[in-house]
Each structure stands twice: as C-alpha cells, then as structure tokens.
Design goal:
The chain has helices at 43-53, 57-64, 105-109, 148-154, 158-171, 184-194, 197-205, 207-212, 217-225, 227-243, and strands at 10-12, 19-20, 40-41, 65-69, 76-80, 112-117, 126-132, 145-146. The protein starts with 9 loop residues before the first strand and ends with a helix. With 244 residues, the chain is α+β, with helices and mostly antiparallel strands. It folds into 2 domains: 5-171, no CATH class; 184-243, no CATH class. A 3-stranded antiparallel β-sheet has the order 1-7-6, with no helix packed on it. It is built from 10 helices and 8 strands. A hairpin with a 6-residue loop joins β4 (65-69) and β5. Bound molecules: iron/sulfur cluster (SF4) (2 copies). Residues 23, 27, 29-33, 110, 137-139 line the site of one iron/sulfur cluster. This is YkgJ family cysteine cluster protein. It comes from Desulfarculus baarsii (strain ATCC 33931 / DSM 2075 / LMG 7858 / VKM B-1802 / 2st14). InterPro entries: Puta_zinc/iron-chelating_dom.
C-alpha cells in the first residue's frame, strides 16, 4: 500500500528535476490507460469521489470498490472495481474522465508515482517522484518539458499529498506489528472511519461515542461540519483504537 522505490518501476527524479510528457485526445493512445489497471483508492480519494458523485459513501463502497489486504503490511487496501470489459467505470465514451476534477491520486499524479518513507524525528515524510515505465503511453515520448513541482500543482495534488502524508502516521505507526492481522471488527472500524464517512458521521454525532472516544465538543462540531475534519478525526480515533 505504501510503495517503496524498489516496488515502482520507473526512473527516479532528483528534487526539482524536470521530465517530458503531454497527454491529449489527439494521441492514438487516448483513453487506453483507463482500462485493465489496478486503481488504488486512498481515503481522500473516496472523499473526493463521493463529492463528485453526490452519493452516500456506503453506496459507492458497495458498487464501485473492491477490498483487498496488502500482503506485505496487512492493512486493508481498496481499489476501484472495473467494468466487466476492464474499463474504469468513470471512463467516458470518448475516452475522457467523467470525474476529472475529483479523479483519484493514482490518475492525477500519472505519469509520475511517489515512493515515501516516514519522516525521521517528525516533519514531512521523505519522498521520491518517479517517471513510471509505460511503453504504451505515447505521452511520454512527447517533446514537452515539464517542471516537477509545477506539474504536481497543476494537477491539484496538494490536498491529496497532504492527506496521505497525514495518513502515514497511522499506516506506519511506530507500535504497529511487522504485519498486521486485523480482526473483522477492526477492519470494519478501518473502513468506517477512513472510507465510509456518511456512516462514521452518524457514529460521531452520537454523544455516547464522543464520550467513549474522549472527543472534545469543539472537535466533534468541526468534524460534523467538514468531511476533511471528519476524516482526520477518524484517523486519530482509529490510531487510538488499534494502537492505544
Ligand atoms: S496512455 Fe498516456 S498519453 Fe495516452 S491517454 Fe493515457 S496518459 Fe495520456
Ligand atoms: S478515474 Fe478517470 S482518469 Fe482515472 S482511470 Fe477512471 S476514467 Fe481514467
């Protein structure tokens, strides 16, 4: 789920190093990359897709998401369920993306990928951006020089990276075992707090839950007002439930 440099095929970029890429409907490969792919979904991806689709989180999870377990870490890992023909359910007839403004991180960051390691002694995680190996992607052969930081900004990566950096605090918690073996109840709590925000909101609204979890009234109020705050609260609650 958290990928290391060795696990992502591609060419690592030095900080600030540029790369060449252009994507557009004039390329013969347009839309071909939205099929037959493993499309991981992070909690913030689900939050944004829910916003795009204006549907309850439990419906999206039931219809559009598949649950796996990361074989290395033991954490639950969610991915987008592809159509029977292998295409992404959001792929439009002309090859465009129907949720473009809210597309998941894995699509947004392409042709780059990010390998991360937790920060030593606090602060920001260490990260390396990689130009992915994708021989079928004609965009990688286009003579259009891009600045790494500008590309990430143009793709709206800021809130996605910030949310995932915060999530690292849970996924790489210092008290987690080498490989987790979550009980069904713990997996349910993971999915509720990080992905099923409509259900988790009802839970947080219950004064008995807030009391048991030791949540301050002001924090509950803030979480009930904004999905982003609710997700942060969910992550902190889960950290407490799983690791004390
Ligand atoms: S394969 Fe590459 S260039 Fe072609 S549509 Fe996908 S991202 Fe764009
Ligand atoms: S979410 Fe959009 S960009 Fe990503 S695979 Fe689906 S259609 Fe393509």
């Amino acid at each position: 789920m958290i990928e290391t440099l060795e696990e992502i095929g591609g060419r690592p970029l030095a900080p600030g190093q540029g790369f060449a890429f252009r994507c557009g409907p004039d390329l013969a490969c347009f839309g071909s990359c939205c099929a037959d792919k493993r499309l991981p979904l992070w909690p913030y991806d689900l939050l944004r897709l829910r916003r795009a689709l204006a549907r309850p989180s439990q419906d999206i999870l039931a219809e559009l998401v598949e649950l796996e377990t990361d074989p290395r870490s033991g954490w639950p890992a969610l991915r987008l369920r592809l159509n029977a023909d292998g295409r992404c359910p959001f792929s439009g007839p002309g090859g465009g993306c129907q949720v473009y403004a809210h597309r998941p991180l894995c699509c947004r960051i392409y042709p780059l990928a990010r390998a991360v390691a937790p920060a030593i002694g606090g602060g920001q995680p260490r990260q390396v951006f990689i130009v992915q190996d994708a021989p079928a992607c004609l965009g990688l052969g286009q003579p259009r020089a891009l600045d790494q930081g500008q590309w990430l900004a143009d793709q709206g990566m800021g809130p996605y990276l910030a949310a995932n950096n915060r999530l690292l605090g849970l996924l790489m918690h210092p008290r987690r075992p080498a490989r987790l073996a979550l009980t069904p109840a713990q997996t349910h709590a993971y999915l509720a707090a990080l992905y099923n925000l409509d259900v988790f909101r009802q839970q947080v609204r219950d004064p008995a839950f807030a009391k048991r979890a030791g949540l301050e009234k002001a924090r509950v109020k803030k979480a009930l007002r904004a999905d982003e705050s609710l997700l942060e609260l969910g992550q902190d609650w889960l950290s407490q439930v799983l690791f004390g």
